[in-house]
């Protein structure tokens, strides 16, 4: 009798346990049942490696990748290779998640691969990526400013339109504040990755951390949120303690340098970062160097001080003649140079949260209340920068041409459209009275200066 009661209790416990798991599974969307938030990055050389990261629900604690050289035929199962991913877990405000990552190495250059990730019966769809050629050939990539807020409803359209218009882009560069709260999934990473959807599975991402990817206590920037390193697998070639935040990627004939300007570091570590930056600028022997960090070099939002934020970095960028710097943070558009021929500083915004602009003297092209993405066209002797609205219209464009001895020349495109200088929504309630009352006079002065420059 006791044995029968024990068996009955065990059976009921198993039933309820299965029912609980089934409830957990079916209470989640189909998306969450399968591996998702899949994205490509680089941890090592883009010519012969590819990093892939994804996450799964708590009932899938192990995950694998299957990959093979891509074929037009769907019957490639005999050539598939299988590898187990490195897995970490984190309990966030929306439950326990497993985060998986793998860095495929010893791949062939200029080769397309098919891959999927998963375990047992829960696998992602097959997707493709192509390794870099390592050659000096023309290519392009995309650059986005802050996406950050209202990502699902409005930020998504910028990402999607950019990719639809540029499906052959080699990578997407994000200049920080991809989301609003880096330590949270809800309304943050749970919106950002679906906003780009399959594009993240096919086009690699390079991103620099913004202040919103760091921990926040009473609006004070703290250590980077754990979800940054769980979501992305970036190079560990930066200063000690800043691996995956401050780093560089060499793609064909260019170097992209990311600097985490929100990092909580000591003054000694800051000096080490400047020394590291000078080293990676000085040693590069390719054609073009790009630098990205989140905070614009100078404050531009109307309610922020306009001072230079990083004079030591600015001096190094000018010393090594960096052509182009990608930033965000200000939630508006600005492009210009600061007392030197180069670099050209670009400040952009992809998302709908916008700020009113202060018309600093260094700005050569401005914009507000407008969502934008940027196409960067690279060849051995020329860079072409094109900023487009979410509707695909050209908003700003210029070229940087380099002659045989390395001297660069800047040329703004002709017939650019009228600038969007509309104050942001709720302008009069969000800004101080003086900032509001002086706006029109400042705008008029700016437009007069730009007109006299032509």
From TrEMBL:
CDD domains: FN3 (cd00063). Residues 35-131 form the Purple acid phosphatase N-terminal domain. InterPro entries: Calcineurin-like_PHP, FN3_dom, Metallo-depent_PP-like, PAPs_N, Purple_acid_Pase-like_N. Keywords: Signal. The keyword Repeat does not apply. Residues 140-332 form the Calcineurin-like phosphoesterase domain. Gene3D superfamilies: 3.60.21.10, Purple acid phosphatase-like, N-terminal. GO terms for molecular function: acid phosphatase activity; metal ion binding. Pfam families: Metallophos, Pur_ac_phosph_N. This is Metallophosphoesterase. The lineage of its organism: Bacteria, Pseudomonadati, Bacteroidota, Flavobacteriia, Flavobacteriales.
